[in-house]
Amino acid sequence: MAVAVQGAPTKGSQDPRPGLVARVKLSYSKHWYAYAMVAPVVIVLGVLVGYPLINGFYLTLTDANSLNSARTIGVKEIPATYQFIGLHNYADILWGPGSYDRFWSHFVWTIAWTVICVTLTYSTGLALAMLMNQRLRGRSLYRLMLILPWAVPTFVTIFSWRLMLADGGVVNGLLGSLGLPEPAWLSDPLAQKAAAILVNTWVGVPFMMVSLLGGLQSIPGELYEAAEMDGATAWQQFRHITLPGLRTVSSTVVLLGVIWTFNQFAVIFLLFGNGAPDAQILVTWAYRLGFGQQPRDYAQSATYGVLLLSILIVFTSFYRRWLARNEEASR
Amino acid sequence: MRRGIAASALVAALAVTMAACGSSGSGSDDKAADGPVTITYWDTSNATNEAPNYEALVKKFEAANPNIKVKFENVPFDQAQNKLQTAMGATGAPDAFRSEVGWTSAFAKAGYLEPLDGTPAMTDKAAFQPSLIQQATYEGKVYGAPIVTDTLGLLYNKELFAKAGITKAPATWDELKTAAAQLKEKAGVDGFFMRAGDGYFAMPYLYGEGTNMVDAKGKKITVNSPEAVKAIETYKSMFTAPGTVKADVTTDSYAHMMDAFNSGKVAAVINGPWEITNIYKGSAFADKKNLGIAAVPAGSTGKAGAPTGGHNVSVYAGADKAHKAAAEKLAGFLTSAESQTFLATKNSTLPTRTDAYTADVKADPGIAGFQAILAAAQPRPELPEYSSLFGSIGTNLGKIVQDQSSTQAGLDATAVDYLKLLPGFSK
């Protein structure tokens, strides 16, 4: 390798840019060590992320399902018989017959679900974080208790909620004793959506609270003291010190919250199973197509996956641009 | 080498060996038939009531065949189809399993099952009811030995019916509605609890109007025909009529229905013989004679019909010779007259062969009740995709009974889904 370094042709010269091959060679001879160090990671990522992604994308262009895919039946091998059908799956999902019921209704609900859940978890998390940031007795005990929903395995939380929300459950018992209406949380479509949001908020708040608490503690106390000297009201302090101080933390947790909520499989699936066609979000719907029915429709399930990924990529790029612009403006 | 290791590991190892040495591997398979073989059997029966009796049978089989060990695994019925599908297309599949009649042809079409003609599993082919053999047949070959058969019936609480002054079981849906109202008024209990959003349990309504989800012979989708719409209108009314329980579409609805019936809070349900042992455990049925069993009510055509259900024992096509031979023996043993009589008396389920109906079996009021209505059961059309049809109709029935879509629109959506599942069919 050292020979290659010595033979590097254009080092330090002002000649026109060398050709592509030469440039690759040059960069290789200069940085081979870096390439060698990065190679394992690239290979592992390629195998674990790249290959499935490309394969999944290819599936979306076929009519693969569990009856025509290649399968090994013990000692027998059956080759795949599915065919390339171009973009038909996308067309079928987006504007084929019944596309409103199959895709758009879930799309609208997924967006609404994400916005509502993130708003609720963020604002509740922020409120709790500010409370926890006060100097009060037993603060660490409260913090511990508020982390609890996060520490319990999600499926345990959700199954407990399913019991509590059932027709004869605790929630309705409480509502009934207060003389309030008792919605059928697990069967009425609108109540199902409310129940899903409620449970997801419960599951999501601790993360928001802990992250924001960390952010709050990094804001210097002098700022508040100075503001108080100048006679700023609590609202003004919140508006001009707390919120700007939390900007970096907030932008990260909101982005994560959106991505997680958008793909929040566990809450919907464990709460309603294969029922509740209206409360299904796009991820659970994709699961149902790919694994929850017979025959399994791998192609359309993969198509849902690609659509989900595209939506998130578009959202993330816009969000980052918006953040960058805000950052500029606030400087 | 001894073959006393877990079958799943063996199948996996074998797949690798076979891939490596091609067809020359078959010679070594024959030798294994002499040594002890361990096969895996997946049982899908109710884990608390039925499975122990199946396990006892398997123990008897092991005692009779010292060279064969059976690994008995109970898989919950509602997950079994998915688990089998996954395992059989990859590794870890059982060598033999109890398969619902509706799955058999679909699995056979996918190439997962071994034909059983001429094997120890089918030595008494003539003893089985011909329609059940027909159900297990795909393209001229038998892929499952029928072990249990069933159909849906109207199960009712005789005491509550008597309290409400009803002397005989309702024969039509309208009579059932009248009875439900009377039960609510005079006996103070809910009259009828129908399982909501489940295609299988809605089949009697379709049969009652002389239609089905599809016309398999005419290659036509009939799920949104005027007759089907009428049938589902009746279905829908069974959740709103006075004395009926409102539609329960939660994941636990089946349990809710049976709990209410077994404890006497509901006077009538539609269900099959697989629940009988559970029902007898309920507080309302301490006296077994209190359980009334009648055919499902009839629709406007005056005819009643319910789907023929049940289970077959099938053998996995991917196992090696020794395992297949052992699995076929097990299938033959489990479906023998003696075994079926044993299962029937213990589980109150219906045998599939005529020589298994001994005096003891016929004395069981549950079996006698269902045997009387079995003749009216409708076998499935020969269509491997048929069991896939229940998914879409179930979802849409859920929407229909919750008034989220009209009956026609819901069934039209189902028809669109069916077009995809059934290429070559017309609407």
From TrEMBL, chain A:
Subcellular location: Cell membrane
Pfam families for the chain: BPD_transp_1
Protein name: Arabinogalactan oligomer/maltooligosaccharide transport system permease protein
Keyword Transmembrane helix included in the entry's annotation: yes
Transmembrane segments: 32-54, 107-132, 144-164, 194-216, 253-272, 298-319
Gene3D superfamilies listed in its UniProt record: MetI-like (1.10.3720.10)
Record domain ABC transmembrane type-1: where: 107-319
Main localization category: membrane
Membrane topology: Multi-pass membrane protein
GO cellular component assignments: plasma membrane
Record carries keyword Flavoprotein: no
Species, as recorded: Kitasatospora gansuensis
UniProt GO BP: transmembrane transport
Family the UniProt entry places it in: Belongs to the binding-protein-dependent transport system permease family.
This protein's UniProt keywords: Cell membrane, Membrane, Transmembrane, Transmembrane helix, Transport
Organism phylogeny: Bacteria, Bacillati, Actinomycetota, Actinomycetes, Kitasatosporales
Automatic annotation (TrEMBL), chain B:
GO terms, molecular function: maltose binding
UniProt-listed SUPFAM superfamilies: Periplasmic binding protein-like II (SSF53850)
GO CC term, one of those recorded: ATP-binding cassette (ABC) transporter complex, substrate-binding subunit-containing
Signal peptide interval: 1-19
Keywords for this protein: Signal, Transport
Domain of life, per lineage: Bacteria
UniProt cross-references to Gene3D superfamilies, sorted A to Z: Periplasmic binding protein-like II
Biological process (GO), any one: transmembrane transport
InterPro entries: SBP, SBP_1_CS
UniProt family annotation: Belongs to the bacterial solute-binding protein 1 family.
Name the UniProt record assigns to this protein: Arabinogalactan oligomer/maltooligosaccharide transport system substrate-binding protein
Upper lineage: Bacteria, Bacillati, Actinomycetota, Actinomycetes, Kitasatosporales
